[in-house]
Design goal:
The complex is a heterodimer. By secondary structure, chain A is an alpha/beta fold. Chain A has helices spanning 4-8, 13-21, 25-33, 39-46, 54-69, 107-119, 138-148, 164-172, 187-193, 202-206, 208-214, 231-248, 276-289, 303-309, 346-355; strands spanning 72-80, 88-89, 124-128, 154-158, 175-179, 194-196, 219-223, 253-257, 294-297, 316-318, 359-361. Chain A has an 8-stranded parallel beta barrel with strand order 1-3-4-5-7-8-9-10, surrounded by 4 helices. The chains are: A alpha/beta, B alpha/beta.
Chain lengths: 369, 258
């Protein structure tokens, strides 16, 4: 069966990296002036040569986003169902080798969390877990969805990669979108970061969006964990992935997230950090490449950064997030996946959004659709 | 100006508005009032049917507009019929803007599913206004299926590109037995005027107003533009020609004296 692997294997990391580094201001200006931007234009826009053009990129990104998405920003809340995990990922607080208390929410606990989240007005929810296939599997998800569905208009998941049939089952049970980040598209580095567990299989993860696309899921979320490798090259591969998926599963919507590595239990930061202005550059470059992809900004980012990035291409944000299972009501002190940075409540965030001239949108789907 | 009749309703205004993309519901309400529109579309998926104080709806309650729920988000006829029934129940109207765009990139309408859904919905007693390509044959097929109007696009939704489908809109207008509402792509008031001068029965505008720096002023401009275009159409403007009409070189001999 056709998959992204065939496309991916035609590229070499080193060559892509070199071609991005070779971009000049002439390439950037051509990309900025182009009406139909290509992946090659994207390389120019994420290259160091584009940094002096950041204001122009931001202006265009702002206009394009406004034209497509209007003056609106959608809000959602993540709900962590479990921090059990059999993978060892050197950057993650849930990593198997972290000797911490593990928790998977029971039916009653899920209801407690729902009640708390609903108080803030959320209608869109993202369900998150680690990867513990013996306890947190499709049957667990189905049971959880049964409880959650009546309370929310739109449900997404960010869980371990699943089989196509499992995605089909979850889609039928009401899942609207699935988020699965490749973390890094650097094959060898991927193995270094994911030393044990099912997640260490690079290609199984790489082909996950294909399995999701085949079942007709409404939306697929992609991303790179920024900080693991050279963000420019990684982002090119992510853009290539997006381009392939959009052409192949043309009835599906896509969203992008930009997780930067945050401090977490047992995590050692790397030397591939992405600076604020580079993250702005990256977000704007994606928007200039793709007018219709949704761009989601999480509470990993600071208050100040989130306030400013709202106008530069953002379509969706989370707010008041807890990144530990039971974090809203059941067990606020359990281990988080990462430390959030923007601690403002959903209500505060909605006010900030409105002050910037945007309508905070809580509902853009129906559970009966 | 002649009134516009669609199914059992008469409209003084030939400008319909979409209610999405505004910076706030208050801004939306002001723009709707300034436009003089009597029919506005609302996306069913945006409305919270479980509360009685849905933000969007509560801002429209005080205006003299009728609601035209749309099925935005559905991907096939089956989902559209289901959404239509939800809308009818929740909003107590059998009017429906049928939107089936399975392509989330350009939001282009699926002609096959749209025709199927129109047939079914018309049988169920809906007043169907389907969003479609500017496809003259599809318009006639929809008429046969019982549609109450057709809503061909000028250009992709939200593109502000104007009447890219001009030549096909002309054919549709010429042939149509139901009102023709030009939907999507209208970017500036002059596009709306052009559509009305051509003989379109109404236009639907959303992005061009919602995203304008001053939505209220823009919606006033559209009101005037639509009225100007319609008045010109009713005044029967002389047809344009591409060249001056020459004296009659081929038949002049008939006037010559032999």
């Amino acid at each position: 069966m056709k998959s992204f692997k065939e496309v991916f294997d035609q590229y070499s990391w080193k060559e892509v990296q070199a071609s991005i580094a070779a971009k000049t201001s002439v390439d950037v200006e051509a990309a900025l002036a182009s009406l139909h931007r290509t992946l090659d234009d994207f390389k120019a826009l994420i290259s160091p040569a584009a940094l002096p053009y950041l204001e122009q990129m931001a202006q265009q990104s702002h206009q394009l986003t406004k034209k497509r998405f209007g003056n609106t920003i959608q809000l959602f809340a993540p709900m962590y169902l479990s921090n059990e995990c059999n993978n060892i990922c050197t950057y993650c607080g849930f990593s198997f080798d972290n000797k911490i208390r593990r928790k998977t929410l029971s039916t009653a606990e899920i209801l407690q969390e729902i009640n708390e989240i609903k108080k803030h007005g959320f209608q869109h929810i993202l369900l998150v877990t680690g990867e513990a296939n013996h306890t947190v599997h499709v049957d667990y998800f189905l049971k959880a969805l049964q409880i959650i569905k009546p309370h929310f208009s739109n449900m997404s998941i960010e869980v371990q990669p699943l089989e196509e049939e499992e995605y089909r089952t979850l889609h039928k049970a009401g899942i609207y979108s699935v988020l699965v980040y490749q973390e890094t598209y650097h094959k060898d580095k991927y193995r270094d970061y994911h030393t044990k567990g099912k997640k260490s299989n690079f290609y199984y993860r790489l082909e996950t969006p294909d399995r999701i696309g085949r079942v007709g899921m409404h939306k697929i979320g992609l991303g790179v964990l920024l900080g693991l490798e050279d963000w420019r090259t990684d982002s090119f591969f992510c853009a290539l992935h997006l381009d392939y998926l959009q052409k192949t599963y043309w009835q599906t919507k896509y969203s992008l997230s930009f997780p930067r590595i945050r401090p977490a239990e047992g995590v050692h930061l790397t030397d591939h950090d992405i600076r604020d202005k580079e993250l702005v550059q990256l977000i704007c470059a994606y928007r200039l490449l793709n007018e219709n992809v949704e761009i989601s900004i999480s509470t990993r980012e600071t208050e100040s950064f989130r306030n400013h990035i709202l106008k530069l291409g953002t379509t969706t944000i989370s707010a008041g997030s807890k990144t530990n299972p039971g974090g809203y009501a059941v067990d606020p002190e359990s281990l988080e996946q990462f430390e959030i940075s923007d601690e403002r409540s959903a209500e505060q965030m909605a006010t900030v959004i409105a002050e910037q001239g945007y309508e905070p949108v809580w509902k853009d789907w129906g559970k009966n659709f | 100006m002649q009134k516009l009749t669609i199914a059992d309703k008469q409209f003084n205004s030939r400008l319909f508005l979409g209610t999405g993309k505004f910076a706030s519901s208050t801004k939306m309400e002001e723009a709707v009032l300034a436009s003089g529109a009597e029919l506005v579309t609302v996306a069913l998926k945006r409305i919270d049917l479980e509360t009685e104080t849905d933000n969007l709806l509560s801002h429209l309650q005080h205006t003299p507009v009728s609601l035209l729920p749309n099925t935005s988000g559905v991907r096939n006829a089956k989902e559209a019929v289901f959404a239509a029934q939800l809308a009818r129940e929740a909003l107590e109207t059998n009017w429906l803007k049928l939107e089936i765009h399975p392509d989330p990139k350009y939001l282009l309408p699926d002609p096959i599913e749209t025709l199927k859904a129109t047939e079914e919905l018309a049988k169920l007693g809906f007043i169907v206004l389907p969003y479609i390509h500017a496809d003259p044959v599809l318009c006639k097929r929809l008429e046969d299926a019982g549609t109450s109007a057709v809503m061909p696009l000028g250009a992709p939704i939200g593109s502000n590109k104007g009447l890219k489908t001009f030549d096909f809109l002309e054919i549709i207008i010429e042939q149509s037995g139901v009102p023709v509402i030009v939907d999507a792509g209208i970017g500036v008031p002059s596009d709306a005027t052009k559509a009305m001068e051509m003989g379109a029965d109404a236009v639907l505008v959303n992005t061009a107003i919602a995203v304008a720096g001053d939505p209220v002023q823009m919606s006033t401009a559209f009101k005037m533009a639509v009225e100007a275009g319609r008045m010109a159409y009713e005044a029967k403007s002389p047809k344009q020609t591409n060249q001056a009409i020459a004296s009659s070189p081929l038949t002049a001999f008939l006037h010559e004296k032999f």
